[in-house]
Amino acid sequence: MLEFDDERSGDFxxxxxxxxxxxxxxxLITTKFPRRETEEEIKTRVGEAARYVAMERLALSTQxxxxxxxxxxxxxxxxxxxxxxxxARAARALWPD
Length: 97
What we know:
By secondary structure, the chain is of the alpha/beta class. It has helices at residues 39-49, 77-94; strands spanning 2-3, 24-29, 58-62. A three-stranded parallel beta sheet has the order 1-2-3, covered by helices on one side. Helix 1 (39-49) links the parallel strand 2 and strand 3 (58-62). It is globular, with a radius of gyration of 13 Å.
């Protein structure tokens, strides 16, 4: 599980070092801020990661849970639901089988 939800995370070049027998879960949807990612943005980012790791070895997730600090992050329940729905929609589009 690798978090790539902001600029500080850098690019996907380190994925070139992942052994061939490992899977990578890309944490692309932030749970830290009320940012609304788009499905196209997520699909583009996964495509960038696929230059380093084959699609069949990639998976998609939020960057962490929705309460990654003791108090939790200031995201409404509706936005949390929207973000989880985005994960499901994008995953179905990227990995239809």
